TrEMBL record:
Alphabetized InterPro entries for the sequence: Homeodomain-like_sf
Pfam name, any one: HTH_32
Full protein name: HTH-like domain-containing protein
């Protein structure tokens, strides 16, 4: 019984982990940044909605990370500048 359990546990650690989500492409990243720069009043959710209309499914948190990496502030702060 113990030998069976040891083999079961050892087999669990040998299996490779499945790959995660594929990264967002450079073209889609450029589109997100362009939408944010051209439409200063649009927030992350609005950009997400427009991308969905164009056939791209991107999470709001991913859009937020892309905008933060590009140095674009949230929409509430973009209005003033």
């Amino acid at each position: 019984m113990l030998r069976w359990h040891r083999r079961l546990i050892a087999a669990r650690w040998r299996q490779p982990k499945p790959p995660g989500r594929p990264p967002i492409g450079d073209e889609l990243t450029a589109l997100i940044v362009r939408l944010a720069r051209e439409n200063r009043t649009w927030g992350v959710v609005r950009i997400q909605g427009e991308l969905r209309r164009l056939g791209h499914r991107v999470a709001a948190s991913t859009i937020r990370k892309i905008l933060r990496a590009s140095g674009i502030p949230p929409s509430t702060r973009r209005d003033d500048t």
